[in-house]
Amino acid sequence: MKQLITLKVNNDQYEIAANPWETLLSVLRDQLGLNSPKRGCDAGGCGCCTVHIDGGAVYSCMMFAHSAQDCEITTVEGISKGKSLHPLQEAFIDKGAVQCGYCTSGILMSAKQYIDEGGGSEEKQIRQSLSGNLCRCTGYQKIVDAVKSVAENKIA
Amino acid sequence: MGNKLNTRVVGTRMRRPDALDKVTGGRGYVFNMKLNGMLYGKMLRSMYPHARILSIDTSAAEKLPGVKSILTAKDVPSKAFAPIYIKDMYSDGVRDVRVLDNVVRYTGEPIAAVAATTLDIAEEAIKLIDVEYEELPHYFNMHDAIREGATQINREFENNICLSPVIEEGDLERGFAEADHIFENTYSTHRVHTCYMEPWMSIADASADGKVTIHSSTQHVFGLREKLAYILDIPLSDISVIKPHYIGGGFGSKTEISSAEPLAVILSQKTGKPVRMENSREEDFITNARTPMEVTLKTGVKNDGTITAREIHVIADCGPYATYGPEAMMICALGGAYTTYRCKNRKFTGQAILTNNMRAGAYRGIGGVQGCFATESQIDEICETLNLDPIEFRLKNAHQAGDPNPITDVFTPGAFKLESYRYEECLREGSAQSGFHKRMPAGSSQGSKKRGIGMASQPLWVSGCVGFPDIPEQSGAIVRINPDGTASLSIPTIDIGSGQITTMCQIAAEELGLKADQVKMNYHLSSDILPFEPPTHASRATYSAGNAVKKAASQAKQRILEIAASMLEANSEDLEIQEGLVFVKGVPARRLSVAEIAQYTESALVQLTPESIKKGKIEDKGTILCTASAAPQSNPSTPCAMFVEVEVDTDTGEVSVLEVTYAHDIGKVINPTSAEGQVEGAVQQGIGFTLMEHMQFDQDTGACLTSNFLDYKMPTAVEMPSKINCIFIESIEPTGPFGAKGLGETPLIVPAPAIANAVYNATGVRIRSLPITPEKILTALEKL
User: Fold this and answer.
1) Cβ of residue A111 closer than 8 Å to a chain B Cβ
2) H-helix or E-strand containing B682?
3) Architecture of domain B33-136+194-285
4) Are strands B275-278 and B39-45 parallel, antiparallel or unpaired?
5) Nearest CA to B712 among B260, B282, B218, B221?
6) To the nearest whole angstrom, how far is the Cα of B79 from the nearest Cα of chain A?
7) pLDDT tens digit string along B616-647?
8) Domain B419-470+633-784 - what CATH class?
9) What does pTM read for this prediction?
10) Region B19-26+474-630: CATH code
């Protein structure tokens, strides 16, 4: 039985009807029309669907939409300010960290948590912070370079 | 030809034009697409590896509200087809697959399809379909499948062998007699999946007038069109395949057609609504996989390291259909072992075996991966035994620039030469930068964590397929000059992540004399307007498509110059274009912008201005729009060499890859960032294949046990080496666009033997069967 819930996504309030078993991923994609959380596996294995719940990276395919009520939900669509890209988005373009790009949204959100929490430029820590996200194209090298450049600039 | 070329746009690290969309949400994927009134399709799949379907009862499913159509074998064409696109599409070889059949030959093979108003209802409906099976004997092991008396799996092939080629040259017996040493070993490889991230999906939209439009995350616009037309008996021109802007990875998997696309079309025809068919990850894992093979290599060698004879026997597990398995086996032998080094006396025999495992597919480096593992592992064994230097051994037996192309020569003798070929520099530079020659003797590393350095190479590969049997290799491109001074580039090549959107724009900009950002990729394309092209596969796009783009751009440039000559009252030979400006050579003041020229071609013949009446020339009018389509002039080879440092924990058996140095000769590097990305990504897939990834199946039911990313382990950022040193030894390939050659596959071909040889160097233990698991290492170290 569908129930009305209120979700706060990228600072906008939405009232939607969802079954209790519907995942946050399917609601974000199918009802709110957000493209950035991607379905890769629907089983919490690939990280393509990563979004922020109250600033923390979460697999949106592993969370019920109902559980996300009263939370601040952020997707890639919400990290740039108007036309001005987030430094991570800039760095991903600049360093060539994007290939097929299907994993990019999820990786950006994991990286954003790392940067938001004051993560440093140590490669090992950056790699750990991205270990919940799979990428099949890049070998992660340029992704790590991109996150590192943002971490370094932040410190500087 | 020298190894340097002066270019302005080619060779720069131009940013990907598609990256902006991809970092801001990624709208361009077909996966995001929905159409009004769209239904959701789902397939019911077999629970048994080999069974006859006695009956199917769909009555309960039909009654479920929201179910709009159900298809079983009786509702779809029974015409057999070849699902792979590479075979000549107008004269298919083996046609042995049906959209839905009354016999299932692997667990997970589609049996029925449903279209419903929601995905949940479609999934619910397939659970309500009742199937009565009669189980048939099944074979998961190649050797069991070819035992006498085994049940025939595929209608087309007795004895469960779909290809058993013999290719030979010289005198094998004499070659072995000339040898001082003979080495004979068997190397085996396993089944892994490409793991593209965007699910394989399509939306079919059949309209009332019989026309069909299809959106798909395919790697091949034209293959999808031809196969659908053939299977469904629809006129070719009534099918429009919409080219995806880009797809979320393919790596070869999406170069074939599955049952899903024809089923989506039929469901759409029956319901009059668009039907979306998307794979779950569990379904994606059983689409197709790298062909497991056993390669037995017998090599005769003189004391000085000269190879005198080579006998190759390959058996390949194709699954139940002759899809990519036989192709992969041929490439394994010919590209991986038969041609790679000079050897006059050689023979290849193979058996492509049908089993009740999932279908063999075309995974990046098809066949070459398996062949290279055998060849390059055995060279390491030969060099260890005879105390020869692995670099010098390879060079002693290597082909040279100017030699006939050894791969294409098998089928088209004398047609092509190795023009640019800097294999030696790949070996020497990689060796120098990796410290290979400073490595310790095998097994001498002290302590429980042992370090070792290994290397392997792939002396030959392809840049496309011209010269090979049955595989078309034509590319095309359309260049339009816009009144704002930019050029629109329309190409059938699908960017599967490999960067063609960038590199093709660079090639066009270079040729046209425009700035890098003045060439725009046209994303709104379909099979109706595009020239023919094979899939984005076989390391072909940069080379073959690049040549077509350059040709179309060159024609457009000629036209720009002609019109500019008319406008400036100059000779077109005296004009040149730089950064979007056309000027008389040596007189930069007499100039026009490309924008002014394009505006003039599209403006009225007579223009009234407040001051005057301006009249143009009638022959100058008309949009500058040039199309080119042609096969490339050659099939140049991309040699490479990889050096790997590993650490093996001899207490746990775990292997870590610490550092990689990878040298390639890919001709002129069109975009270094893209090229590095190809190599770095392939290293991830190579480490996964060699050490971590292995598809597992239930030995009773054939069900895939590793059909999600929690059970199927691929490297994350943590398992990757901290350093991947990409070296590009630039050459200028005379037949390539601005000297370029292909790259896509080679970086994934070499990691397995390079890592295996490094593991040997660290531990003194040789593993000849992939993947190299902790269990195998501990067993070999006699710790288990």
Assistant:
1) no
2) helix B672-687
3) Alpha-Beta Complex (3.90)
4) parallel
5) B282
6) 33
7) 999 999 999 999 999 999 999 999 999 999 99
8) alpha beta
9) 0.98
10) 3.30.365.10
